[in-house]
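Journal club prep — side note

Before the paper discussion, L.F. wants everyone to see what a predicted structure for a comparable chain looks like in token form. Sequence:
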Amino acid sequence: MINIRKLEAELWESADLLRAGSKLTLNQYCMPVLGLIFLRYAYSRLKKVEAEILKDRPSRGGRVMPVEASDFSAKSALFLPKEAQYEYLVNLPENIAAAGLINKDGHPMNSLGEVVNNAMALIEDQSEQLTGVLPKSYTDFSDELLAELLRIFNNSALDDVVGDIIGRIYEYFLSKFAPVVASDDGVFFTPKSLVKMIVNILEPKQGVLLDCACGSGGMFVQSGDFVNAAGMNTNSTMTFYGQEKVEYNAQLCLMNMAVHGLTGVIKSGDEANTFYHDAHNLNGCCDYIMANPPFNVDKVKAESCENAGRLPFGLPSVNKNKEVSNGNYLWISYFYSYLNEHGRAGFVMASSATDSQGKDKDIREALIHTGHVDVMISVGNNFFYTKSLPCSLWFFDKAKGEVIRDKVLFIDARNYYTVVDRTLNEWSEWQLKNLNAIVWLYRGETDKYTTLLQEYHDYLHSEAEAADNDNLKEAVYRDSFADIVSALKEKLSALHKTAKAEVEAAGKRDKKSVQQQYGDRIAYIENMLTVAKEAHWLYEKFGDGVYTDVLGLCKLATIAEIEEKGWSLTPGAYVGVAPVEDDGIDFAERMAEIHRELLSLQAESNDLMDTISQNMKEMGI
């Protein structure tokens, strides 16, 4: 797995260094640079999909049938003509004028900027929804600057096309280019963990999906992946609509959808301000609503809101200036109102909204009485990429079964996550599945839970077989996940001791390679142990597949119980506090690990100081 944070920091540092040496303003530089990231990302996806197409490609007369644009649309990918492919652009000769290149309109091209503009125009010809969206101001760049940018973004790490990486890198760059835009009205990028959780619980299959605060389009991309993984073609079964007030975000959304082969209608600017406009006339028509709206927006004009409708439970509190001073319950009302009679909604919301008072409480009570509030999930700090605030995930389902119609599932996941680094947490793929499994059991979908348990066994078995290690096979071919965890811990402890002895015994020249060899083996088993622990975490709570309330984690509450809690939808108010568990970490071992990390950081610091000193000497300082 690539380190996205390290990658985007490196890309930014390199790109910004080049801008500093040019005469371009940030505004002139922003979208063209994002356009180059789009080109690189689109090319990565093209090569991956092309390989899939060629696997089963028929042949005639011994020759494989040529790949065509329609093959890519069938695989939800954007076709790129040769002159728009990144490999072509990055390998162009230095002297463009002497290369005899002709653009799509038959005119000669004399600069690299003209060639890149032509590439963007060729891509727009492939996708109607991209018409007029892609940047075409590359002649503002010198050939030297543009060639260096193409080289910087020719990074193999961008070949990992899983999820919304372009959105992540886009938001990082945008926050650097224009902090005012990036943080305006609480706008920030939705982390993949939260997007996947929303999609997994809503399970989109067919129909109309609206995201009326769509940002860079992560909800659409993830929904497309979900539908395609189910064996369906997203563009045949789903219709995507988006609203996005910030123009930059809307452009990126269209680029992001196009690179994933998705079509949709995205409106931006003032007409896409959801507080005042139902831009697509979809009230009461949506099968799915997904969104991460800006939190706690103030100064919303109450009269304009009321005139725009979509407020089935009435207006939230209005101040003396005739403004709604907190827009959270406007969003919540819209999401409910947009749903059709069997629609589902999933969205991110500020934690404070689950038990806010005044008119908010009245709206929440009316909402709960509908029986359509389905699941509430509390999310801890540090999930957002640029913010440290906690949040909640809300889910509505207008087609809830009668058995659970007067109940709400509360999940407190604030203490369940994987640490990415000091300022960022996420749910791993297995943790996402485990939380999803709680929802399956609540809905009575035991077969999905059973399939997940088997998936755990299959994964552990396949990892042991791939390692071709009898000790590992012996450890994982057991019925009990608890036994598997215990056995893997023993194997790992023994391997640590062997590694320490072998490294100490190795000669000076071999020490590093021996350390690397054992490090790889240790990491392999640690990964297996992590997965086995997640399997054990799930099975010890729900056994062979019966939902039960788990102290500190989940609680199925009736509307009567919610009334007793003052109509609060805060999961922590219902699930209680779990007993403190031994985390199983060996203190001495962890302290030794921290000491090694500290020494490594100290060495890096010393190297950096030496470099700075040398640079200052060269500058005569």
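L.F.'s comment for the group: The chain has four domains: 4-161, 191-443, 449-546, 591-616. Keep this in mind when we get to the figures.
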